Amino acid sequence: MSMQLSAHLPALQIVVPLIVAPLSLLLRNPRLIWMAAFAATATCLGIAVALYSQVLQQGEIRYFMGGWAPPIGIEYRIDQFNALMLILVSLVGTVVLPFARTSVDKEISRQRQPMFWTAWMLCFTGLLGIVATGDAFNVFVFLEVSSLATYAMIAAGKDRRGLTSAYQYLIMGTIGATFILIGIGLLYMLTGTLNMADLAARLPDVTQPRTLKTAFVFIVVGCSLKLALFPLHLWMPNAYAFAPSAVTAFIAATATKVSIYVMLRFFYTIFGAEFSFGTMPLGEVLMILALVAMFSGSLVAVFEQNVKRMLAYSSVAQIGYIMLGISLATTTGLAAGMLHLFNHALIKGALFMAIGAVVYRTGSAQLDQLAGLGKKMPWTMAGFVAAGLCLIGVPLTTGFLSKWYLVTASFDAGRTVIPVMILISSLLAVIYIWKVVETVYFKPALALKPGQEAITEAPLSLLVPLWVMVAINFGFGLQGSVIWQTVLQAARQLAGES
Q1: What is the reported pTM?
Q2: Do 249 and 340 fall within a single domain?
Q3: DSSP code of residue 195
Q4: Among 278, 407, 466, 488, which one has the highest count of C-beta atoms within 10 angstroms of its own C-beta?
Q5: Strand, helix or coil at 459?
Q6: Contact 431, 302 (CB under 8 A)
Q7: 349 and 316 inside one domain
Q8: Which residues contact 86 (CB under 8 A, 6 or more apart)?
Q9: pLDDT 10s digits, 193-234
Q10: Which structural domain, as residue segments, surrounds residue 380?
Q11: Are 38 and 51 a contacting pair, CB within 8 Å?
Q12: Quick check: is 204 in a domain?
């Protein structure tokens, strides 16, 4: 029985949370819904770990949905890279959900919670589906499932600015998805297949290079919109600032990272590195945009007064780091970019949970409202500082690990100026993190308004997930060589070197 079950793990990875989504509407009771959602995400985490173990032991996993082999049927294909991505999405979902239970109760009315949890599980399902599928059109379908659910979640909070933020994200996201769909349609026109492996096999024989290049450009632009690559990031700051705190923590750690995964899958698996970085001048373009993102995002963050928006612009800069590694067009550069992808997901999850705990107690993410919170919410703010150190890249943290390998990859590629720019950009991160530290620890607390309750430490239901995420960050930092070798092996497989 266990052997039969293990053979269907790729399908169960998607089916389990998909079942819980409509079940959320039927249960109606928020406590029961949360229990079902947590059970589903924890199960998905276990499945993801099992799939990664299988990949290491047996090699790439191919699963035919309904027993129909491609190109007629839809294939799920699991290798080391997307197995790690499945673990990342499931891990973040499992850690954030306990935080979300308390946070959502305060930020979303009880009668709207069943719909909210339905959208949450659909988003989670879509993200896992994007990563697991081996079919290009399925990528678009799951991308839309997760995106539509995300728009609904952003608009679900009590802050009405979330509606306009969700609408702006919807417009930008729809344009991005349309570009991706056009690119996939052009590939289908050229090859007659949507299976990624078949596309990779047939594209070298394509006799219409202009159409192929057009498809490539459409997909690159579409993915860039989805992952918020500068200058296509305008939807991100408001979406992160005005969404419910739990939603921000979840999508900041997963959604853009999965979009980067999609881009990498097209670059390496379908088009191939030689076409993406040789025939097309992708490396140079990405490098310029990445460097501008690193500095523009950090500079805006320095002057931002809303901490959620500050962290959103910080994400623009950190996405720049990821794309910088990819733009080097080397295996070590790719691995360094992938490593920063995983690390940034964990760091931003922790930072947004810390600010979510502040919002839970104070009702605001404005910097001036955080004055003196270091004494009133010591564990929350200590968690923020710890995650901030990871973001800056202090030694023994995840942030230091990935930035170190980005510097190493830059030297290996002969780009000796880039390490200096990484250092300067990291110093800008010190400035905006220090702004928060200075406010919470060195400024006097604000006087209470008439009728306002005294601010106290966040409840354990918020603190425990926050510190679990912080512990994961430092744990990964201390296991640097092991983590690097794991990611490097996945990068080599993606690049076709093993």
Answers
A1: 0.90
A2: no
A3: B
A4: 466
A5: coil
A6: yes
A7: yes
A8: 13, 44, 47, 48, 51, 52, 78, 128, 131, 132
A9: 888 888 888 888 877 788 888 999 999 999 998 888 888 888
A10: 281-498
A11: no
A12: no
